[in-house]
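[Solved] Which block belongs to which protein?

Original post:
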Amino acid sequence: MEHFTIMVMPQGIKIDAYEDQILLKALRDAGLRADAPCGGAGTCGKCKVIANGQEVLSCMALVDCDMTVVLPGGGEI
């Protein structure tokens, strides 16, 4: 299984993720607070981030390449 690097901004933290891992899980596994009151069902929109320049729900986005992820509100989701 391939591994990718996620650069988390604005903190500048690099985290490792494996191919097809859900982005929300990768962020949580790295110790980042990630709000998803819908339980990752993609219905609340609280886990929205900018990944490689596109707004995505982190609970629905799969890691399939190296990414730069910008967290809303200065760094906590």
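(Second protein starts here: sequence line, then its structure tokens.)
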Amino acid sequence: IANARQADTDWSSLTTQERIRSIELDGFVVIPDLLSPDQITALHGELDSLPMNSTDYSKHQKGCHDLWERDCPVAIDAIANPPILEFLNNLFGDDLICTSIGLGCSEPGHPGIAIHTDSQPYGSKIFGVQASSPILARVLYYLDDLTREVSPFRVIPRSHLSLHADGNPYQRFEGHPEEVIVPTKAGSAVFLNHRTFHGNCPNVGDRAREML
């Protein structure tokens, strides 16, 4: 991770066509400023009181799933954020189905998430039935700045295109020579092809990082 290349794309300058090309070819794209400062403040106020469960690999990585079953109107509204819907409609050209919404928090001391895919087409005890979908896009809203020290997103571009045995979607990797670190600002979203290998870096900073 220490030697990984950092993405230097000017994400704000990309056209819709270039964003679609990025997620189709590279497996991901960043769209900045999808949430306003007021929306971020409202989301923090609404979500910070939710009951959070630690993962089995670290007490510093916590989450709360199925937010549509909770009193989270601001988070629910974020699903239908107009710029998101416009982009996804252009990307898919089909009716949209939201399969999940959850909150993740990486606290200082979080060891990072191994490089993995969210695609498990032959069945999954981790992701459930949604992982078997042939086409799925994750929309990762970041509610805090991602710096190199505070659990930035990491990804292996174009890994969803690999036909090699190492591209088996059930594989996991601690690192990869072609992985890229993707810092970004609060309010930005990463759009991810669920077959693309990705993860996040350790949180060696002094604050938590939340993701919707």
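Accepted answer:
You had them paired correctly. Confirming on the second one: The chain has a mean pLDDT of 94.
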